[in-house]
Amino acid sequence: MGIVTVSIVRFGGSNCDRDAERALDHLGIDAEIVWHEDGLPAETSGIVLPGGFSYGDYLRAGAMAARSPILNEVREAAIEGTPVLGVCNGAQIGCESGLTEGAFTTNESARFQCEHVSLRVERADTPWTAAYDEGEVIQVPIAHGEGRYEIDDDRLETLEAEDRVLFRYCDEDGETSPEANPNGSKHDVAGVLGDRETVAVLMPHPERATLPDIGPTDGQGILRGFETA
Amino acid sequence: MTAYTATVTVRLKHGVLDPEAETTKQALERLGFELEDLRSADRFEVDLEADDADAARERADEMAERLLANPTIHDYDVEVDAR
């Protein structure tokens, strides 16, 4: 490796930036945390929008960070093909900034939920899912209060027709159901692709399912997307 | 230039689930109130100066479009009053 330098964008209130750095480091992927006001380093060849509570979730989760100047740089890099991964608050920022469609809003339970969930890999032909088989079920934790995926019905139809749903919540056998959907997300959507397959956001935390010391490592394949993208 | 207050009300689109409003409704029922439904909304009062009410409204409208509301899940309306 060593060729890929992933910039992990830290905002005030980010709290999964160091987790992402450690997880990428464990996989041998060069990564550094970048303070949002400093802009993206020239050598950036991948971008993580990490989890946390940027700007204290003021107005809406991700709303403020999505309108900070560095997001203009992130959007430009994404258009040029730089891989961008938004996790949890990073996924909320991704949707608020228009990198991806839809919105992540208040869980159906109206509560913060921290638990292990099963995800079904809907496509295996993207950088983020090349390590898996289509239909494979992986275990990755969630930790969010605003993770319910919401989008207009016709836009969801288009998203599905374009095969841009990357992960769905499911049970251990890969079946979707209201019981296996932790937050009430429309059509069980847990993660989606942007205009390009190199841009993805998801509410579950792959960086918390990467280090062998802390449990399952099913999230490694998602982070390895930075090598394959 | 005239001083205006633009009041921007942001609410969830019809049909978008509002778990907090549902929880609030249930709490009111536990207190013994009778009600059929409850909706919540965010209200922003923006003090600004503009040439006329239309210009004030237009600016507040753009604020709603670009930040105060998320068009994916929200509708909004703007009212303008001279201060």
TrEMBL record, chain B:
Record-level GO cellular component terms: cytoplasm
One example GO MF annotation: ATP binding
EC number: 6.3.5.3
Catalytic reaction(s) noted: N(2)-formyl-N(1)-(5-phospho-beta-D-ribosyl)glycinamide + L-glutamine + ATP + H2O = 2-formamido-N(1)-(5-O-phospho-beta-D-ribosyl)acetamidine + L-glutamate + ADP + phosphate + H(+)
Pfam families per UniProt: PurS
Segments crossing the lipid bilayer: none
Keyword set, alphabetical order: ATP-binding, Cytoplasm, Ligase, Nucleotide-binding, Purine biosynthesis
GO biological process: 'de novo' IMP biosynthetic process
Compartment list: Cytoplasm
Pathway entry: Purine metabolism; IMP biosynthesis via de novo pathway; 5-amino-1-(5-phospho-D-ribosyl)imidazole from N(2)-formyl-N(1)-(5-phospho-D-ribosyl)glycinamide: step 1/2
Oligomer and partners: Part of the FGAM synthase complex composed of 1 PurL, 1 PurQ and 2 PurS subunits.
Cited function: Part of the phosphoribosylformylglycinamidine synthase complex involved in the purines biosynthetic pathway. Catalyzes the ATP-dependent conversion of formylglycinamide ribonucleotide (FGAR) and glutamine to yield formylglycinamidine ribonucleotide (FGAM) and glutamate. The FGAM synthase complex is composed of three subunits. PurQ produces an ammonia molecule by converting glutamine to glutamate. PurL transfers the ammonia molecule to FGAR to form FGAM in an ATP-dependent manner.
Family: Belongs to the PurS family.
Name of protein: Phosphoribosylformylglycinamidine synthase subunit PurS
Organism: Salinadaptatus halalkaliphilus
